[in-house]
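Researcher: Quick test of sequence recovery. Tokens follow.
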């Protein structure tokens, strides 16, 4: 991530994705913070003016080289400091590779093995489990009252 784009981040909002392809989940080995050394789902901070689904797609591409399309909203964590949204995302293209900055590797791991692995934190395990159930909120577009633009709403 460039210094210029870091200035545009909303440090209180982040988005991530659970990408499952052929029974394997895309994970990155984090290089800093509380998750250092752990395999986590890719994600990051939302830029000013960016919507969470777009941020999740951008972050997966930046961190792993994999292009995805956000699908269902499967989790939102709220705390007194921030909020974090997690989507399932459809694999579109690309080969998993590390960004050599925020992660030291990007790998496809058997999804069922990931939920019991010692180097996968609980939050990632919960999100993988939810994604495997194939449930969540789906995007439902609608036109706003003054018909000036399409709004995004996630519904059950």
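Model:
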């Amino acid at each position: 991530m460039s210094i210029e784009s870091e200035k545009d981040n909303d440090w209180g909002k982040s988005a991530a994705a659970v990408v499952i392809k052929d029974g394997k989940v895309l994970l990155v080995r984090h290089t800093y913070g509380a998750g250092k050394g752990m395999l986590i789902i890719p994600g990051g901070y939302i830029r000013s003016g960016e919507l969470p689904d777009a941020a999740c797609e951008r972050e997966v591409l930046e961190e792993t080289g994999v292009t995805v399309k956000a699908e269902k909203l499967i989790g939102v964590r709220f705390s007194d400091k921030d909020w974090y949204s997690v989507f399932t995302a459809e694999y579109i293209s690309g080969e998993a590779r590390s960004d050599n900055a925020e992660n030291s590797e990007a790998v496809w791991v058997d999804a069922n093995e990931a939920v019991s692995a010692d180097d996968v934190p609980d939050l990632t395990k919960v999100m993988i489990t939810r994604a495997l159930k194939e449930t969540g909120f789906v995007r439902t577009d609608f036109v706003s009252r003054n018909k000036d633009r399409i709004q995004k709403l996630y519904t059950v």
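The longest strand covers residues 9-21.
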